[in-house]
Amino acid sequence: MSEAIPAARERYIGYSETAERPENAELTHVRPGTPGGEYLRRFWHPVALCSEVSDVPLLVRVLGEDLVLFCDLGGRYGLLHRHCAHRHASLEYGKCEERGLRCCYHGWRFDVDGTLLEAPAEPANSPLLTRVRQPAYPVEVRNGLVFAYLGPPEHRPAFPVYDTFDMADTRRVPYTADYPCNWLQITENAMDPVHSVFLHTRVNGPSFNEAWGEMSVREYYETPSGFYYTNGRRVGDHVWVRVHHVVLPNLTQAGAVRSMSGDTPRYFGRPVFTRWVVPVDDENTRVIAWANFGPRTDEAREEWMSPIGIEIIEGGEPRTRPAAEAIRKPGDYEAFVSMGRITRHAKEHLATSDKGVAMYRRRLLADIRKVAAGGAPYQASDEVAAPLPTYAGDTVLRISAPSDDEAFIAGVCRQVAETLSAADPLKGADRDEQVIRELRAIERRMNGAAD
Ligand code: FES
Ligand SMILES: [Fe+2]
């Protein structure tokens, strides 16, 4: 009997799929006044590396706004709207002074908060001095990154300080990279651990090592501020539990990469990057991050650390390289950017392996709508004392395989996840000690020893 042949309309469907579909504007648009843009403006975002800021003002574009970032000669950082409040010359041509920035055109001088300090062509008692302000945003400087808050002043949250901002024995290297695509394509990749199996291992050869090519057992958890999930794998006599953490809207942290093969015990490893995915505008994105090197992430090897910086990201995968090389061995950059400037959600086919992506989009949409309806997003920094606990990193326990290993690995992962969240009330070394003690206890229990 010959096989039934599907009707022609079910096979070569190219023509019927040529119709354009609209962008998912609610999730992807970031300019002022858009629902997504207003939501994103409720959070602090990094806008540059300190190493990019000198006595020459730096033009930056964030959330569709053109801004000028500078550090005055008194060492204070300022972030102002690009165009001078007088007659709109760009302040990128301004001069940094002991206090504030002087416009190149008629010499008006603005303080870091936008106060007009001097208008030299005007009478000394000019009412302009009290009436005119250059639009400005508050900034915070941490560990070589400049952060800014672009939202309504009355909703400004406390600056969020996470536990990974200050990890013992850790070398922190700031880096940044530009991507010509929408920010969501990059952020939601952090909720897609399955891509590591294929993009980084099976399809294109290992970016790190072969252990990444095994499909992991995945468990996802939602928290008031975002998501974390466990990726469990069997590596010989070890169970490797990799934890990713995504804090809404755009902070992501993940475990080690270059020195992680899952076959050496590790208890509460910590993230190799602390990374924000910052929308430049609807179609461009800037990743701004720290690479974290040390005994609990990737080793602090000089040859790994020293190249990292502008356009060179952490992770061993070159960000810019010859096109022929990228085609042979594509990485994250090629995947994100090749999806288009703004990928059309209406043309996708989300599958079971996209569980994390779907969870993230659902939550993001709910939070955007909450803000649009007059509500406020959850702000951990207003609710919890600093430093805020984070979960990302690798744990590798030495436990031999039982007969139903997949269910067993899932059980180990759940215990690791519970151990991490149970330690939330603790800070610093106390938290580390409790988590590590509990992880060792899990290992002993799973090997059949009494506690
Ligand atoms: S345009 Fe800036 S001082 Fe005139
Ligand atoms: Fe990746």
* CATH topology tier name of the largest domain: Naphthalene 1,2-dioxygenase Alpha Subunit, Chain A, domain 1
Low-confidence parts: none
Q: Helical amount among residues, as a percent range?
A: 10-25%
The radius of gyration computed from the alpha-carbon positions, rounded to a whole number of angstroms, is: 24 Å
Total helical elements: 12
Mean pLDDT comes to 94
Regarding CATH, which class of the largest domain? Answer: Alpha Beta
- Biggest beta sheet summary: 8 strands, antiparallel
Structural class: alpha+beta
Question: What are the key terms here?
Answer:
12 helices; four-stranded antiparallel β-sheet; Naphthalene 1,2-dioxygenase Alpha Subunit, Chain A, domain 1; 451 residues; binds FE2/S2 (inorganic) cluster
Task: Write up this protein.
23% of the residues lie in helices and 24% in strands. The strands form 4 sheets. Strands 12, 13, 14, 15, 16, 17, 18 and 19 form an 8-stranded antiparallel sheet that branches. The model has no long low-confidence stretch (mean pLDDT 94). By secondary structure, the chain is of the alpha+beta class. The chain has helices spanning 25-28, 35-40, 128-131, 183-187, 194-202, 302-305, 323-328, 332-338, 355-372, 380-383, 405-422, 428-446, and strands at residues 44-49, 58-62, 65-71, 77-81, 95-96, 101-102, 109-110, 116-118, 136-137, 139-142, 145-149, 171-179, 217-223, 226-235, 238-247, 251-254, 273-281, 284-293, 393-398. Helix 11 (405-422) runs antiparallel to helix 12 (428-446). The protein folds into 2 domains: 44-155, Rieske [2Fe-2S] iron-sulphur domain (Rieske Iron-sulfur Protein, 3-layer Sandwich); 163-446, Naphthalene 1,2-dioxygenase Alpha Subunit, Chain A, domain 1. It binds FE2/S2 (inorganic) cluster and fe (ii) ion. FE2/S2 (inorganic) cluster binds next to loops.
